[in-house]
C-alpha cells in the first residue's frame, strides 16, 4: 500500500515516514510511504492509495480532498498529537482505516 | 524643719544680695556657730548657696531663680499634672541632689512609658537647680546598638588610644569622657554584653577608666549614670547592677497612670502637634474618649504616634478640603483607636468626671504655654452624616436608583462592588461609614467566610458596609428595598442565600430594624460576585554584601549581577583603614534603599560586620538575617532566590545550606522519585474539601497521561504559606493551571471553581494539556530522531523563537499549526546541520513581494536559532515558516 504524506516542505513529515515504515515492518505490511511538500503533491498523488496532511497544512485539506476525490483517494489530516509525537504506529493505522 | 533647711531658708529669704557670716546667722537663729558653720559649708558643697572667701567667710543665696526651694522646677511642674509620678519624681530629685555628685539610678518600665524622656527630665532638673552646669552634657547611649560587638561598645564608651587597633588612627574620646560633668544615659542596659560589664562596674564604683589601648594612664570622669531597661530587674545581669545602683525608679504603664493623667498626656501631645502645625486643633469629645480608652500596649510612645497619625490625617483633610478649622473627629482615628469607643461605656462615669459631658469639642492652641479648653461647636457633630448623605447621593446618581435596580441585578452588583472600589479609595470609605456598621460588617464577613469557605475581599467589606448603611437610611426614610430577582438568586445560589439569610438576621438585631427579604438577595450577590485576588504586591528581600578589604564585595556582586543580568545585589567594601562606624552608616543607607518589609539578607565575612544585622534591624525596623560567610556562589544563590521572591527565611536557609550540603546534593537528585513534569493545582480553604473534589472531577473528565500530569490540591488557610507552596511547585514543574476562587499568582493561568464545575473551562484546560503533553512527547521523539542536534534543546529554542514571532505578529498559532511549526523548524535545523539541500519554494519571488514585512520580521526572529546552531536558513525556508502564520487563521 502506498501512503503519501504532505507537509509544508516535506521536511518534518520525513521523520514520521521513518516511524511509519518501522511500524509497517513490525506489522509485516508491505507499504511504500513517502513525504513531499504541498506543492509537489499533484506530481505524486497518482501513485498513492492514501494522502495524509500534516496538521500545519490543514488549510489545504479542501483543495486536496478535491484532488483525491477525482481519483478515489481518501485524504485527511493527521492527528496533531500523533504528528507532534511522531507516533508512526497510530498514523499508519489511521491511514489503513481511511483506506477501508 | 530641719536645722539645715532652716538655715537655707533664712539665706533664701534674705535674698542673694545679703551676705552673712556664720556667726551673724547663728546669732539671728539662736543656734551654735559651729553647727551653723558646718551646715553652711554643707549647703555650699551641695551647691545650694554661694560662698565668698574672706574673714569672716560670707554666705549668700544663689543668683536668679535656679534654686530648688524658690522656683518651680521642670519636675515640679510635671508632678502637678501627673500625680502617679510624684514618688518617682521625689526619687529622681533625691538621686540628683545626693552629694557629692548625685546617685546612679536605674529606670524601669514597659516599652514606651517614657524612660528616655524621664532621664532627660532628670538632667533638666539637675540644671534647673544648679546641680549641673547649664551646658552640662546629657549623653545618650543605647547598649542594644552594640550588644553583639563588645569591642566596639567598649571603644564607644571609653574611647580609643591611637594605634590600639588597625584603623584607630587617632585618639578618640569615648562617651564617658564626653559626659564628664553631666549625665550619661544608658538605654536598654540589659543588652550590655558581659565583656563590657566589668569595665563599666569599675567606672561606676571608682569613676576611673582607660581608653582602649591605654595601659598606664588612668582617667577620671565625673558622670552621673542613669540607666533604663524594660527587663525584669530580677534577671541575672540586672541583679549585679542592682547591687551598685541604690536608686531604682519604676515608671508606671499608661494603664497604671489612670484616665485623668492619660487625658492630660493626650492633650499635651495634641498641643505639641498644634505647636508643630502652627495652628489651633479642635478635637471632638468622642475622639478624645477613644484616645483615653483604646488598648495601647506600647504606652505613651504609641499614644504619641497614634495622635500624630491622626493629626496628619486631619491635616490632610484640612488642606485638601480647604476647611477653615483643623478638626479631629472619630473618622480621622486609626482603626484600632476607634475601637476604644467600644470601651468607653466601661469608664463612662470616670470619663464624664474628667472631660465633662457638656463639651462637644476640645481646642488646643499652638502656643507653647497654650491651654486647652472645652468648647461647643455646632457645625461638627453632623458633618459625618452630611458626608455620608452626600456620598449616598452620589452613588444614587451613579446608578443606584430604584428603577434601575430592577433591570439587571447582577450587573448592578458587579459595577457596584468594582465601582465602589474604583471611585472611593479605602481611606475615604472608612471615613464616611459609621464605625458601628464597619464593626457589624466585619462580624458578618467573618461569619460568611467561615460558612462559605472562602475569603471575601476588602472591596466586598466596603461594598457591604456602604450597602448596609444605605439600606438603613432608606428604611429609616420609609423607602422600600425591592429585589425583583430574589427567586432567581435563591435558586441559583442556594448556599450563599442561606448564609445571607443568617446575615440579615444579624443586621436586624444590630440595627433594630426589620429588613425585607429582598435584602438577603443583595447580600447573596455580594458573596457570589467577589472574584477576589489574593495576590499581594510581592515584596522581595534586599541582598547586601559587605566584606573587609577593598573591592572584595564589589567583585562578587559584580559577577553575580552580570550573570543574572540585574542590578539586584549591592556591595559595600570595608577597606582596612576605614572605620567600621562609617561603613555602618553606608550600610544603613543602602539598607534603607533596598530593604523592604520582606527583609534584608546581609552577607558578611567577619568581625564587627556580624553585628550590623541587628543594628540595621533596629534602626530601620525591617527583618535582617546575617550570613557570616560569603563567596560568589553564596551571593549568586542569595540573589537568584531573592529575585524570585522567596522569603527571607527561605533564602537564608538555602544559602547557609550551600556550604553544608553542596557535596551531598548530587546523589540525592538521582534517587529522587519520578514527579510528573506538569501539574494542575486545585486550591480551596481546607485543601481537602472542594480542592480534592475538583481534583477527582478533573481526573475523570480530562484526557491526560498520568506519567506527565498530576493534580495537586492546595490548602489556602494560610495565604502566605499557600503562596510559598505554590512557588515551590512552580520551581519543580510546570503549572498549567490553578483552579481556585482566588488569584494566587498572576503569572499562572487560572480558572475559577465555577468554570470548572459547570464545564466551561474544560475545553481550554484539555487543549493546554494536549499541547503540553504533545510538547513533552515531542521532546522525547525528537531526541530519538534528530541526528545533528539535541532534541530537547532545539525544541525549547524553537518554542521560544515561535513564541517571539507570535508576539511580534500578534498572531497566536492554533494548536495544530503550532505543533506542526515546532516540528517543522526542528527538522529544518537538523537537516541544515546535516547539510541537506533546502526545498525550493514555488513562486518565491512574488510571494516575498507580497509579504515583505512578514519576511523581515520572521527572518529577524530566526537569527538567534541560526546563531546558536550555526546554520543559514534560506529564503525558501523562511517562506515555508511564513505560511504557518499566513494560514493560521484560514483553517479548514
UniProtKB/TrEMBL annotation, chain A:
<dbReference type="InterPro" id="IPR013012">
    <property type="entry name" value="PTS_EIIB_3"/>
</dbReference>
<keyword id="KW-0813">Transport</keyword>
<dbReference type="Pfam" id="PF02302">
    <property type="entry name" value="PTS_IIB"/>
</dbReference>
<dbReference type="GO" id="GO:0016301">
    <property type="term" value="F:kinase activity"/>
</dbReference>
<keyword id="KW-0762">Sugar transport</keyword>
<feature type="domain" description="PTS EIIB type-3">
    <location>
        <begin position="1"/>
        <end position="100"/>
    </location>
</feature>
<protein>
    <submittedName>
        <fullName>PTS system IIB component</fullName>
        <ecNumber>2.7.1.191</ecNumber>
    </submittedName>
</protein>
<keyword id="KW-0597">Phosphoprotein</keyword>
<feature type="modified residue" description="Phosphocysteine; by EIIA">
    <location>
        <position position="7"/>
    </location>
</feature>
<dbReference type="InterPro" id="IPR051819">
    <property type="entry name" value="PTS_sugar-specific_EIIB"/>
</dbReference>
<dbReference type="InterPro" id="IPR036095">
    <property type="entry name" value="PTS_EIIB-like_sf"/>
</dbReference>
<dbReference type="InterPro" id="IPR003501">
    <property type="entry name" value="PTS_EIIB_2/3"/>
</dbReference>
<dbReference type="GO" id="GO:0009401">
    <property type="term" value="P:phosphoenolpyruvate-dependent sugar phosphotransferase system"/>
</dbReference>
<keyword id="KW-0808">Transferase</keyword>
<keyword id="KW-0418">Kinase</keyword>
<keyword id="KW-0598">Phosphotransferase system</keyword>
<dbReference type="GO" id="GO:0008982">
    <property type="term" value="F:protein-N(PI)-phosphohistidine-sugar phosphotransferase activity"/>
</dbReference>
Automatic annotation (TrEMBL), chain B:
<feature type="domain" description="PRD">
    <location>
        <begin position="789"/>
        <end position="892"/>
    </location>
</feature>
<dbReference type="Pfam" id="PF00158">
    <property type="entry name" value="Sigma54_activat"/>
</dbReference>
<dbReference type="InterPro" id="IPR036662">
    <property type="entry name" value="PTS_EIIA_man-typ_sf"/>
</dbReference>
<keyword id="KW-0067">ATP-binding</keyword>
<keyword id="KW-0238">DNA-binding</keyword>
<feature type="domain" description="Sigma-54 factor interaction">
    <location>
        <begin position="78"/>
        <end position="312"/>
    </location>
</feature>
<dbReference type="GO" id="GO:0016740">
    <property type="term" value="F:transferase activity"/>
</dbReference>
<dbReference type="InterPro" id="IPR004701">
    <property type="entry name" value="PTS_EIIA_man-typ"/>
</dbReference>
<keyword id="KW-0547">Nucleotide-binding</keyword>
<feature type="domain" description="PTS EIIA type-4">
    <location>
        <begin position="540"/>
        <end position="671"/>
    </location>
</feature>
<dbReference type="InterPro" id="IPR002078">
    <property type="entry name" value="Sigma_54_int"/>
</dbReference>
<dbReference type="GO" id="GO:0016020">
    <property type="term" value="C:membrane"/>
</dbReference>
<feature type="domain" description="PRD">
    <location>
        <begin position="432"/>
        <end position="537"/>
    </location>
</feature>
<dbReference type="InterPro" id="IPR027417">
    <property type="entry name" value="P-loop_NTPase"/>
</dbReference>
<dbReference type="InterPro" id="IPR003593">
    <property type="entry name" value="AAA+_ATPase"/>
</dbReference>
<dbReference type="Pfam" id="PF00874">
    <property type="entry name" value="PRD"/>
</dbReference>
<dbReference type="InterPro" id="IPR002831">
    <property type="entry name" value="Tscrpt_reg_TrmB_N"/>
</dbReference>
<dbReference type="InterPro" id="IPR011608">
    <property type="entry name" value="PRD"/>
</dbReference>
<dbReference type="GO" id="GO:0005524">
    <property type="term" value="F:ATP binding"/>
</dbReference>
<dbReference type="GO" id="GO:0006355">
    <property type="term" value="P:regulation of DNA-templated transcription"/>
</dbReference>
<dbReference type="Pfam" id="PF03610">
    <property type="entry name" value="EIIA-man"/>
</dbReference>
<dbReference type="GO" id="GO:0003677">
    <property type="term" value="F:DNA binding"/>
</dbReference>
Amino acid at each position: 500500500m502506498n501512503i503519501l504524506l504532505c507537509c509544508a516542505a516535506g521536511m518534518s513529515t520525513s521523520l514520521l515516514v521513518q516511524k511509519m515504515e518501522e511500524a509497517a515492518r513490525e506489522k509485516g505490511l508491505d507499504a511504500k510511504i513517502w513525504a513531499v511538500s504541498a506543492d509537489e503533491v499533484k506530481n505524486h498523488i497518482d501513485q498513492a492509495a492514501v494522502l495524509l496532511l500534516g496538521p500545519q497544512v490543514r488549510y489545504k485539506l479542501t483543495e486536496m480532498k478535491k484532488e483525491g476525490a477525482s481519483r478515489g483517494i481518501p485524504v485527511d489530516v493527521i492527528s496533531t498529537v500523533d504528528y507532534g509525537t511522531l507516533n508512526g504506529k497510530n498514523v499508519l493505522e489511521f491511514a489503513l482505516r481511511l483506506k477501508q | 524643719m530641719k536645722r539645715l533647711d532652716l538655715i537655707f531658708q533664712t539665706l533664701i529669704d534674705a535674698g542673694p544680695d545679703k551676705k552673712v557670716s556664720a556667726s551673724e546667722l547663728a546669732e539671728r537663729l539662736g543656734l551654735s556657730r559651729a553647727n551653723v558653720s558646718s551646715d553652711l559649708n554643707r549647703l555650699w558643697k551641695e551647691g545650694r548657696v554661694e560662698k565668698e572667701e574672706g574673714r569672716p567667710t560670707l554666705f549668700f543665696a544663689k543668683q536668679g531663680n535656679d534654686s530648688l526651694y524658690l522656683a518651680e522646677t521642670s519636675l515640679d511642674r510635671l508632678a502637678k499634672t501627673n500625680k502617679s509620678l510624684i514618688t518617682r519624681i521625689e526619687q529622681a530629685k533625691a538621686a540628683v541632689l545626693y552629694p557629692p555628685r548625685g546617685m546612679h539610678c536605674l529606670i524601669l518600665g514597659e516599652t514606651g512609658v517614657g524612660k528616655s524622656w524621664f532621664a532627660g527630665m532628670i538632667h533638666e532638673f539637675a540644671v534647673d537647680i544648679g546641680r549641673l552646669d547649664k551646658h552640662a552634657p546629657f549623653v545618650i547611649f543605647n547598649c542594644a546598638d552594640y550588644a553583639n560587638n563588645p569591642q566596639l561598645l567598649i571603644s564607644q564608651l571609653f574611647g580609643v588610644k591611637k594605634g590600639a587597633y588597625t584603623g584607630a588612627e587617632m585618639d578618640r574620646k569615648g562617651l564617658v569622657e564626653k559626659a564628664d560633668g553631666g549625665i550619661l544615659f544608658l538605654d536598654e542596659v540589659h543588652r550590655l554584653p558581659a565583656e563590657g560589664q566589668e569595665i563599666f562596674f569599675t567606672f561606676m564604683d571608682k569613676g576611673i577608666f582607660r581608653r582602649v589601648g591605654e595601659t598606664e594612664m588612668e582617667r577620671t570622669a565625673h558622670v552621673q549614670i542613669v540607666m533604663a531597661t524594660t527587663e525584669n530587674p530580677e534577671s541575672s545581669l540586672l541583679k549585679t547592677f542592682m547591687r551598685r545602683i541604690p536608686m531604682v525608679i519604676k515608671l508606671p504603664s499608661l494603664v497604671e497612670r489612670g484616665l485623668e493623667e492619660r487625658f492630660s498626656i493626650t492633650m499635651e501631645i495634641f498641643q505639641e502637634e498644634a505647636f508643630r502645625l502652627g495652628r489651633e486643633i479642635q478635637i471632638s469629645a468622642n475622639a478624645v474618649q477613644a484616645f483615653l480608652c483604646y488598648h495601647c500596649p506600647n504606652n505613651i510612645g504609641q499614644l504619641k504616634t497614634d495622635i500624630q497619625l491622626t493629626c496628619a490625617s486631619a491635616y490632610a483633610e484640612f488642606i485638601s478640603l480647604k476647611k477653615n478649622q483643623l478638626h479631629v473627629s472619630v473618622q480621622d482615628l486609626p482603626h484600632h483607636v476607634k475601637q476604644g469607643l467600644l470601651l468607653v461605656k466601661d469608664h463612662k462615669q470616670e470619663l464624664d468626671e474628667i472631660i465633662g459631658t457638656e463639651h462637644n469639642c476640645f481646642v488646643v492652641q499652638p502656643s507653647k504655654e497654650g491651654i486647652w479648653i472645652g468648647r461647643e461647636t455646632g457645625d461638627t457633630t453632623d458633618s459625618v452624616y452630611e458626608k455620608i448623605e452626600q456620598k449616598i447621593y452620589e452613588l444614587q446618581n451613579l446608578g443606584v436608583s430604584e428603577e434601575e435596580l430592577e433591570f439587571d441585578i447582577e450587573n448592578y452588583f458587579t459595577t457596584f462592588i468594582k465601582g465602589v472600589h474604583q471611585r472611593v479609595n479605602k481611606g475615604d470609605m472608612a471615613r464616611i461609614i459609621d464605625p458601628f456598621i464597619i464593626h457589624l460588617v466585619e462580624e458578618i464577613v467573618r461569619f460568611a467566610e467561615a460558612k462559605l469557605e472562602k475569603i471575601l475581599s476588602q472591596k466586598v467589606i466596603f461594598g457591604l458596609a456602604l450597602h448596609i448603611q444605605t439600606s438603613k437610611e432608606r428604611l429609616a426614610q420609609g423607602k422600600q428595598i425591592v429585589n425583583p430577582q430574589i427567586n432567581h438568586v435563591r435558586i441559583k445560589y442556594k448556599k450563599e442565600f442561606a448564609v445571607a439569610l443568617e446575615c440579615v438576621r444579624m443586621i436586624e438585631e444590630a440595627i433594630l430594624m426589620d429588613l425585607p427579604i429582598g435584602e438577603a438577595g443583595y447580600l447573596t450577590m455580594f458573596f457570589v460576585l467577589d472574584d477576589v485576588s489574593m495576590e499581594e504586591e510581592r515584596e522581595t528581600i534586599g541582598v547586601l554584601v559587605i566584606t573587609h578589604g577593598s573591592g572584595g564585595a564589589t567583585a562578587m556582586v559584580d559577577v553575580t549581577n552580570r550573570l543574572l543580568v540585574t542590578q539586584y545585589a549591592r556591595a559595600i567594601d570595608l577597606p582596612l583603614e576605614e572605620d567600621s562606624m562609617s561603613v555602618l552608616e553606608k550600610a544603613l543607607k543602602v539598607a534603607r534603599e533596598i530593604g523592604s518589609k520582606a527583609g534584608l539578607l546581609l552577607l558578611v565575612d567577619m568581625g564587627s560586620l556580624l553585628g550590623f544585622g541587628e543594628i540595621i534591624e533596629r534602626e530601620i525596623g525591617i527583618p535582617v538575617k546575617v550570613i557570616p560567610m560569603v563567596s560568589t556562589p553564596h551571593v549568586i544563590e542569595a540573589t537568584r532566590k531573592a529575585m524570585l521572591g522567596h522569603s527571607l527565611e527561605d533564602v537564608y536557609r538555602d544559602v547557609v545550606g550551600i556550604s553544608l550540603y553542596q557535596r551531598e546534593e548530587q546523589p540525592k537528585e538521582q534517587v529522587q522519585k519520578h514527579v510528573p513534569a506538569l501539574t494542575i493545582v486545585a486550591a480551596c480553604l481546607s485543601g481537602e474539601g472542594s480542592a480534592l473534589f475538583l481534583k477527582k472531577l478533573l481526573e475523570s473528565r480530562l484526557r491526560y497521561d498520568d506519567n506527565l500530569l498530576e493534580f495537586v490540591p492546595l490548602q489556602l488557610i494560610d495565604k502566605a504559606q499557600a503562596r510559598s507552596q505554590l512557588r515551590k511547585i512552580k520551581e519543580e514543574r510546570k503549572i498549567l493551571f490553578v483552579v481556585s476562587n482566588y488569584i494566587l499568582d498572576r503569572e499562572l493561568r487560572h480558572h475559577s471553581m465555577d468554570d470548572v464545575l459547570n464545564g466551561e473551562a474544560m475545553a481550554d484546560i484539555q487543549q493546554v494539556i494536549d499541547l503540553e503533553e504533545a510538547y513533552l512527547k515531542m521532546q522525547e521523539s525528537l531526541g530519538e530522531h534528530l541526528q545533528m542536534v539535541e532534541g530537547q534543546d532545539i525544541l525549547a529554542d524553537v518554542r521560544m523563537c515561535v513564541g517571539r514571532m507570535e508576539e511580534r505578529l500578534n498572531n497566536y498559532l492554533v494548536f495544530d499549526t503550532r505543533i506542526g511549526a515546532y516540528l517543522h523548524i526542528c527538522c529544518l535545523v537538523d537537516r541544515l546541520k546535516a547539510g541537506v539541500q533546502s526545498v525550493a519554494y514555488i513562486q518565491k519571488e512574488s510571494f516575498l513581494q507580497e509579504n515583505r514585512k512578514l519576511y523581515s520580521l520572521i527572518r529577524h526572529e530566526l537569527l538567534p536559532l541560526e546563531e546558536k546552531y550555526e546554520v543559514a536558513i534560506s529564503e525558501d525556508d523562511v517562506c515555508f515558516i511564513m505560511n504557518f502564520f499566513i494560514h493560521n487563521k484560514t483553517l479548514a
